[in-house]
Amino acid sequence: MATATQESTTSALGERQTRLEDDALLRGLGQYADDLATTPGTLQAAVLRSPHAHARLVALDAGEALAMPGVHAVLTGADVQRWAAPLPVGVRQPMEHWCLAVDRVRYVGEPVAVVVADSRYLAEDALDAIRADYEVLDAVVATEAAVAGDAPVLHEAVGSNVVNDRSFSYGEPDRAFREAARHVSLKIDYPRNSCTPIECYVVVARYDPADGGYDVAANFQGPFALHSVMARALKVSGAGLRLRTPPDSGGSFGIKQGVLSYVVLMALAARKAGAPVKWVEDRLEHLQAASSATNRVTTIEAAVAEDGRIQGLRYDQLDDCGAYLRAPEPATFYRMHGTLTGAYAVRNLAVRNRVVLTNKTPSGLNRGFGGPQVYFALERLVQHVAVELGLDPLTVILRNLIPADAFPYRAPAGSLLDSGNYHAAVELARTGGGLQELEERRAAARAAGRYYGIGFAAVVEPSISNMGYITTAMTPEERRRAGPKNGAVSTATLTVDPLGSVSVQIASVPQGQGHRTAAAQVVADVLGVPREAVSVHVALDTGKDAWSIASGNYSSRFAGAVAGAVHKAATRARDRLARIAAAQMGADPGDLVFADGRIHDRNDPARSLSFHRAAGAVHWSPGLLPEDEPGGLRETAFWSPPELAAPDDDDRINSSLCYGFVFDYCGVDIDPVTGRVTLDRYVTTHDAGRLLNPDLVDGQIRGGFAQAVGAALYEELAYGDDGSFRSGTLADYLIPTAAEVPEPVILHQETPSPFTPLGAKGVGEGNNMSTPVCIANAVADALGQRDIRLPLTPSRVREMIGITESEPPAAHAAPSIEAPAGGSTLRATGVVELEADADTVYHAMLDPGVLSRIIPGCHALEQDGDNAYRADVTVGVGLIKARFEARVSLTDLDPPHALRLNGAGSSAVGTAEGGAAVRLSPREGGGTQLAYDYQAAVTGKVASVGARMLQGASRVVVDQIFARLRQEVDGPGASAGDRAWGRRFRAWLLRLLGRGGAP
Amino acid sequence: MKRLDAGRSHPVTFRLNGRERTGHAEPRLLLSDFLRHDMGLTGTHVGCEHGVCGACTVLIDGHACRACLTLAVQVDGRDVETVENLAEDGVLNDLQQAFRRHHALQCGFCTAGILMSCTDFLARNPRPREADVRDMLTGHLCRCTGYTGIVRAIVEVAEQRSGSTTEENEHV
Ligand code: FES
Ligand code: FES
């Protein structure tokens, strides 16, 4: 068959162009998941979540909630057990992960019930009316503690919190370590963080009782291998779950993979309600229960020669996947497995990977997936090798980099590094980024007594994941039984309609990366039509569109794989059109050139045919087409690279198709007083093969860099020792703003990939891998420290410098009390001056009538024993208001000098427990001084809104108790303080909420 | 002070993007929900509902405000402007065009709020320095762009509108 020429005169590829997406988005006309039209009668859902990190769910009573106005249904674990199955898990272990807790909760925020109502407001009202009784169990939060023999076990049938344990050996690591001159090791604790898109999860689900199928729209990002997981959990065939994604997405960065369990949950809620159901996740739900990068504890060791050459590496890694192993975990390990030796020519490697479960939110995809954890260990180690050997870190890097003539290079664990010239990239960075100048600045800063450091990081950035890498978690024997998995099928469909318009459907589910623009450029380039004449559709419908398990937006697969499939589909269409046009023009198809919306004969410039005329022929006059030409014009191309083989019997896995290179360095200046880390300059050098659109590439680099600055300096999904979640608002989980993100110096080198159709590699994730450790290395250099833990917040850095926080002055001789165990602990002391004498005050406090009046929000107080009461109390903290069933007691009575006021309560949003030691002493000249020392611990949603808020709120509540007591004993004239309290509370709330906006 | 019955809907009559509109809202209904669900203007986005991300920013009587911290009933009798009103005669305004030129958006979810804050900011600060622009932007979270394009776009529009290039407002 003849092929048309590759030439076209208006090559759009590689040029800087604006995006097709932007016009609608700038007008506010984007179609995000929450903007899609819904069927009339669509109801709204709200999710009841566990306030406990680990508890048995003893009883659930939704009766009162169901009786509330506008409430249609409440979905519970019993319904889920009836209609669904647990979500399939990627390792062979007897553990069940239901989309809704069935008899046990294992992390704070785990869904327990779903209320379906006319509006979200009504649904949330009804959440408070559901009674869930829990029997609290010991929680395990720290990763290493979970491995210990006496740790509480999350999944009893498994018998251990280690649910997968694999060891690997490549080359001769034992010998390398035996023979090496030096061993250098480090222990690393990589924290939990998330790239947190600004748009949260959205699901709109429908159940069709006629065919038993579900139709769900969700801002799911893929990989669509997880469609099978969802369908199996719903107990339907693939066709029984029609999953659709919206045209626009408010960002994902991997995180929207985690919506998969809510797709199942809302599908079942719709079935229960007998109506379409919509759920829009709020920010607290998102931060506490959506997803997270795994946190990882790594012990890494290098066998090194005196010149800094690394002869062997050992990794002992514990990946903390949270309470359940949600698919595709434990992929965080295996995405990077073939690449564990990074950019270095190290041949001997030993690895032990243990997957650990703890009482935290299940982990999942997060931009850089697995890379930040691996490189934090590896690149910290390389820096530390330099320190130990008294060498310059760059010297150690250069001595170990894979040489340019070794590509394609097979790494010991199996990655086939496709192309690169690492030494040249480092040289480009050194000269282009001004390393020497930074070194001079460091010298000058240090001479002036300041903390200044330079850090480096060299990373290999994998892209286009091998769908088979996850099976490396299984033994070769288990893999043989399960059947091999490999490859990564990408797909695109190109259609030309009767008027000659070209449209393309891609299954890449973009999350803001401009895939429509890039795909249109590829097609315009091949067909010689203006880019604007190509419409690109990205909303995916598994019921109608071409897709496969690798579809979706992850592992930076667009430029390398999806654009390749688009190119292939467009090329096929062009070849067909060339034959058709050649017949009409009496020319040879090989001589035809597609350009300017026309098809030209290169031998006779006068002869040409318009594109739409040739294209129209396939619809309007199929009878006149050349033989074998069927008419109509729609080409679906699938493309899977042969290099992506299944893991071999020696556990070698080519985990990705392409491997870009990133080399970064930076200078940091550390404020010796505040501990604030300032990036003086950040240089990042990328080799991502051929650049399809340099602007889009730089945009990806800047975005990833900003997120990585957050991971390095500010962001952590924090937990209390009891598993309470501490980062429930964006004022607690600190995302860097324009004031914190400097402009990086971006440098490019292009070494095309031999394995992708266009020579491009992925580029979106490199800085998420390189930047956190690069900054950490700079801080290590500045402070001469070995143990660096992220995020490098000012207080952590101050601690490293050796500045200890001074104790707050002990203002009053307040009595001290024992802290209640666990939770978010709050403490306050204070003094109240009273007119009444100690006896009066003391007896007032023992009087239930007074007690009920001084406890804020107390509706009812019922005697329950000697100085013990049951109370019904409503407390508001910030935007959360909750009704507590409380027990109040007075103990340690020492009339009229001292007593202890205790309270403990539980509510739909968590528990609270605390006590105040109260001491009364006579004042000079009459009256009484009341001193109190108050401690409390809270769990659940109340804890998640942050200690920052709670400290203020608890203070307000406690102040109020004693202000009211004064009113009781001294009379209404003393109420000024009470009014002041109201003002203070309001001022505090406004301060809290008043972060920013245009001034 | 006017008191509204919490359990009932109340009429809210206001100017929305230059036209008088009336809707009904319970006192607790957020302005962000009211604009999106009742007025059908989904260009205003919701990213946190606690005043930090800035995605929901709209103009109320010309001032940039968080729609998620405003009750719908509070805009009764006021003038509200949203991102849908920025284009003039169907053509993107200078700020929108600059955002497009400078790749100031990727997913676009934060964009509407930033455009509205900028509209207010530039009206009051015709010649901002880059540091002022970054300072104003601290009221907004963007997870995609790293802010570079946003800053460049705003600085450029400020220059164009004031017809001058001062040394401080050189591009970043
Ligand atoms: S939604 Fe209003 S500030 Fe985030
Ligand atoms: S463009 Fe996605 S959050 Fe700003």
Low-confidence stretches of chain A: 1-11, 808-815, 817-822, 974-986, 992-999
Report how far apart the termini of chain A are.
67 Å
CATH topology name of the largest domain in chain B, in short, is DNA polymerase, domain 1
What global shape of chain A is seen?
A: globular
Report the CATH topology name of the largest domain in chain A.
Aldehyde Oxidoreductase, domain 4
Task: Give the count of structural domains of chain B.
Answer: 2
Describe the largest sheet of chain A. 7 strands, mixed
Largest interface: A-B, 61 and 70 residues
Biggest pleated-sheet summary of chain B: 5 strands, mixed
**CATH level-two architecture of the largest domain in chain A:** 2-Layer Sandwich
* DSSP E strands of chain B, number: 5
Q: What is the mean predicted local confidence, pLDDT of chain A?
A: 90
Helix/strand structural class of chain B: alpha+beta
The strand order across the widest sheet of chain B is: 2-1-5-3-4
Ends of chain B: how far apart? 48 Å
How many helices of chain B? The count is: 5
Number of H- or I-type helical stretches of chain A: 26
